[in-house]
Amino acid sequence: MRQVSSARMGPASVNRYLLPYERSCITVRMHPAVLAGPFIVISGGLVAARKLASRSERPDIVWGAYLLLLLDFSRRVAAWPVTYFVVTSERMLVIRGPLSRTVAAMPLDKATGLTLQRTVMGRLLGYGSLNVASSGRRQAFRKVRHLPYPEQLYLEVSGLLSPDEVARPEQGEDASSGVDSDPGF
């Protein structure tokens, strides 16, 4: 299994949004599968535009509509390398946008639950979604989609949300089996 980036030095586009006392625990870029849907649309649009343009009296209108699809796809491709999910020692952040930057943050102490969701396609391609439940009425984000290494992220974020509840073997117990090493007969 590949390790999730837990380096203290993340990308500069992420580090500028960290508070002075925060340390980055997890930084991941969205899975490239986020571009699969728009790629299918742009490919199907090209086939449809060629067919419609050959039968239309005004092919410039058809190609103009396809140009709008192409521009939207280009915007999504440009946004992918600068979209990150970051978990720090204090909060979770979703950073998006190549030109107009949007940063959504949620304090870790406000998150009350975490749910991992994986579709069939997500299992095949290696991505998943994390649903975050919050104790407040307003939430910066509820669902973070297209995350790589979803099981590992789920375990690491769960450990950060409730570090006191993470099971640790007590002294005198075998850590591998959870059975007391001295039966006391």
Short account of what is shown:
This protein is an alpha+beta fold and 185 residues long. It has five helices and seven strands; from the N terminus they run αβααββββαββα.
Description:
The protein is 34% helix and 24% strand. With 185 residues, the chain is α+β, with helices and mostly antiparallel strands. The chain folds into two domains: 12-30 and 83-161, Pleckstrin-homology domain (PH domain)/Phosphotyrosine-binding domain (PTB) (PH-domain like, Roll); 35-78. It has a four-stranded antiparallel β-sheet with strand order 1-2-3-4, with helices on one face. Strands 5-6-7 form a three-stranded antiparallel β-sheet. Strand 6 and strand 7 (143-148) form a beta hairpin. Helix 2 runs antiparallel to helix 3.
Topology:
Elements: H1 12-15, E1 24-29, H2 36-55, H3 59-79, E2 84-88, E3 91-96, E4 102-107, E5 111-117, H4 120-125, E6 127-134, E7 143-148, H5 150-161
Antiparallel strand pairs: 1-2, 2-3, 3-4, 5-6, 6-7
List keywords for this structure.
three-stranded antiparallel sheet, disordered C terminus, 24% strand, alpha+beta, PH-domain like, 185 residues, 2 domains, 5 helices
- Mean pLDDT, to the nearest integer, reads 85
SS summary, helix count = 5
Number of separate structural domains: 2
Please provide the count of β strands: 7
Structural class per helix/strand content? alpha+beta
Provide the helix percentage.
25-40%
Order of helices and strands: HEHHEEEEHEEH
CATH topology of the largest domain, anyone? PH-domain like
Strand order of the largest sheet: 1-2-3-4
For the termini, the CA-CA separation is: 42 Å
